[in-house]
């Protein structure tokens, strides 16, 4: 992995990718670099206005890009189903579960879930399950070429999930709640990888994180509450300490495209999980707990109504 960059992404011609949250930040860079290497890229975005602008900008930067916008609101399960039903491709080579919200004030999704848990985990759990038939249909590619990459965070180290309080109804601390959703992302990857292997499916489930990358995630929470001082401090931190979105997207791009990526691997920046070229990343031991992973999976199926039938045969 030493020195790996976007120039090292293998040819993606003939492949179809879905990237959630692709209108800005890490998601936009991920979509752009996949398109630059020849993939057909679906930008799955909540805001059609920002999504259209992202597609326009992407085509300016990569004139030959095959890119399209499709609306997806991960905080609304009906929207997730509509997106999956309307996707016109029977085969899907790559799903990058990138979108997310961070350290937001307490709120709930349209379906009544705590916002961070509903968007960051349940929305992506449902999306992956609904797109699984298309992913399995593309798995006749070379072994391991079809992938589900879920973007977690080094902030998962703040804490394990509480299977009896997934929606943080007992107590809500925004950063702890965010960290737990990022733990959920890793537990989901762990359990999905295990189930894919047990089913003999040639689909790799892997995870990645950007370290500290400058995106609009850091300022969205304070802005939503009108906490201007906190918003300014976050913006200052982005300028002084963070790496660019281009650098922050590299671990996910590596997990999505590099040869030999292993199931349930976790890729992040090489320097103290903070910045640098992609490398194997530290992860908390609780993200490898089979029992907790199974409990989260069962709860996620019940809460979303999405059952991974293709892996149960």
Structural overview:
With 313 residues, the chain is α/β, with parallel strands linked by helices. The protein has one domain: NAD(P)-binding Rossmann-like Domain (Rossmann fold). Helix content is 42%, strand content 14%. The chain contains 10 helices and 8 strands. It has helices at residues 25-36, 48-61, 77-86, 115-137, 174-198, 217-225, 228-240, 245-248, 250-257, 290-304, and strands at 16-20, 40-45, 66-71, 94-97, 146-151, 203-208, 266-271, 275-280. The chain has an 8-stranded mixed beta sheet, with helices on both faces. α4 (115-137) packs parallel to α5 (174-198) and α5 (174-198) packs across α10. The chain is globular. Belongs to the short-chain dehydrogenases/reductases (SDR) family. It holds the Pfam family adh_short. Keywords: Oxidoreductase. This is SDR family NAD(P)-dependent oxidoreductase. GO terms for molecular function: oxidoreductase activity.
List the helices and strands and how they pair.
Blueprint: E1 16-20, H1 25-36, E2 40-45, H2 48-61, E3 66-71, H3 77-86, E4 94-97, H4 115-137, E5 146-151, H5 174-198, E6 203-208, H6 217-225, H7 228-240, H8 245-248, H9 250-257, E7 266-271, E8 275-280, H10 290-304
Parallel strand pairs: 1-2, 1-4, 2-3, 4-5, 5-6, 6-7
Antiparallel strand pairs: 7-8
Organism: Streptomyces asoensis
Protein name: SDR family NAD(P)-dependent oxidoreductase
Keywords: Oxidoreductase
């Amino acid at each position: 992995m030493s020195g790996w960059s976007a120039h090292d992404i293998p040819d993606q011609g003939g492949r179809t990718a879905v990237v959630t949250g692709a209108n800005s930040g890490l998601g936009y860079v991920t979509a752009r670099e996949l398109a630059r290497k020849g993939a057909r890229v679906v930008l799955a975005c909540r805001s059609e206005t920002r999504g259209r602008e992202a597609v326009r900008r992407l085509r300016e930067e990569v004139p030959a890009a095959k890119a399209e916008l499709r609306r997806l609101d991960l905080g609304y399960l009906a929207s997730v189903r509509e997106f999956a039903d309307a996707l016109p491709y029977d085969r899907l080579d790559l799903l990058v579960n990138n979108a997310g919200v961070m350290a937001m004030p307490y709120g709930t999704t349209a379906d009544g879930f705590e916002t961070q848990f509903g968007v960051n985990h349940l929305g992506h759990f449902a999306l992956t399950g609904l797109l699984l038939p298309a992913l399995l249909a593309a798995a006749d590619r070379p072994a391991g070429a079809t992938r589900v990459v879920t973007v977690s965070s080094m902030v998962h180290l703040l804490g394990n999930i509480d299977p009896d309080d997934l929606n943080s109804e007992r107590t809500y601390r925004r950063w702890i709640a965010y960290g737990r959703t990022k733990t959920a992302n890793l537990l989901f990857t762990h359990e999905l990888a295990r189930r894919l292997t047990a089913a003999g499916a040639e689909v790799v489930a892997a995870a990645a994180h950007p370290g500290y990358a400058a995106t609009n995630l850091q300022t969205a929470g304070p802005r939503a509450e009108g906490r201007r001082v906190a918003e300014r401090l976050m913006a200052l931190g982005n300028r002084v300490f963070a790496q660019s979105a281009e650098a922050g997207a590299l671990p996910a791009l590596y997990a999505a495209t590099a040869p030999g990526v292993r199931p349930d691997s976790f890729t992040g920046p090489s320097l103290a999980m903070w910045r640098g070229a992609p490398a194997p990343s530290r992860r908390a031991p609780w993200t490898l707990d089979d029992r907790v992973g199974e409990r989260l999976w069962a709860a996620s199926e019940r809460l979303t109504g999405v059952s991974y039938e293709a892996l149960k045969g």
